[in-house]
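[Meeting: bench + compute handoff]

Bench side (C.D.) handed over the final construct sequence. Compute side (W.E.) agreed to return the predicted structure before the next meeting so the bench team could plan truncations. Sequence as handed over:
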Amino acid sequence: MTYDRLVCANCAAPVSEGRCPVCRANRERLQQQAGGMFAHLNPAMLLALLVALIAVALLLHQAV
């Protein structure tokens, strides 16, 4: 889930705007959690990576 769609229960503003201390704290927490290895890849890139890995596995299996 991205924080750009979340609404703060404290001030009723979008969390991405960071209007109150609660918004700012949650925005920072969500940004830190989003830093994964594949976080910046879109679904099409993940699918292409999966297809490439399967192709490599099949080639290695045929070589043995």
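W.E. noted at the follow-up: Residues 9 and 49 are 39 Å apart (CA to CA). C.D. will use this when planning the next construct.
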